[in-house]
Amino acid sequence: MTDHPLNSCKGKATEVDRMLQLAERRCHQQGARLTARRRRVLEILCQSERPLSAYQILEELRDGAPLAPPTVYRALDFLLEQGLIHKLETLHAFVGCNHPDHPHASQFLICADCGGVTEIEDASLSDSVQVAASRSGFKPRRSVVEVLGLCAYCSETQRVASTASEADGNER
C-alpha cells in the first residue's frame, strides 16, 4: 500500500520541519518550554503516517535507553495543552495537528480499513454541537468529533475489487 495518499502533509521532511518551527515559535510566544524530548515526541507524531499510541511513541523514543511511560505522557500532555497535537479518543492514539498556527475545533475522519486519519475544520459542525449543547443546558468542556468510515482510496479500492469480483462471477 505504498501509493496510499494518506494525509498528504504527514511524513514529508519539509512539512515536518515547518511544523517543528511553528511549534517552537508558538511555545516561545506562550512562554512555554519545548524541551528536546517534547520536540522529539512531536517530531515522531509529525513523521508518522498513522496515529500513534503513547506506547508506540515510547518505543520510538527508547532507542536502547530505558524510559518510563510517564515520560511520554507528560510530553503528550504538554503538546496537547499547546495545541500542537490531537488525541483521538476512539483509537487511544495521537496525531500531530495540521493547523497549530491558529486555534480551531477539529473533526477527524478515521478510515476503518487503513487506519488513516484526516483532520478537517468545519466551523458549522462545531457551532451546531455548541448550540445543541446550549439548548440542553449543557456546558461542554471539550468536544471531539471522530467519524469512522472509509477514506476515498480504500473506498475506491473496495469498489474496484467488488466490480472485479462481480465480473468474475458473471463469466462462470
TrEMBL record:
Zn(2+) binds at C111, C114, C151, C154. Pfam families: FUR. CDD domains: Fur_like. Transmembrane segments: none annotated. Binds 1 zinc ion per subunit. GO terms for molecular function: DNA-binding transcription factor activity; transcription cis-regulatory region binding; zinc ion binding. Keywords: DNA-binding, Metal-binding, Repressor, Transcription, Transcription regulation, Zinc. It comes from the Bacteria. GO terms for biological process: negative regulation of DNA-templated transcription; regulation of secondary metabolite biosynthetic process. GO terms for cellular component: cytosol. Its cofactor is Zn(2+). InterPro entries: FUR, Fur_C, WH-like_DNA-bd_sf, WH_DNA-bd_sf. Belongs to the Fur family. PANTHER family: ZINC UPTAKE REGULATION PROTEIN. This is Fe2+/Zn2+ uptake regulation protein. It comes from Thiorhodovibrio frisius. The lineage of its organism: Bacteria, Pseudomonadati, Pseudomonadota, Gammaproteobacteria, Chromatiales.
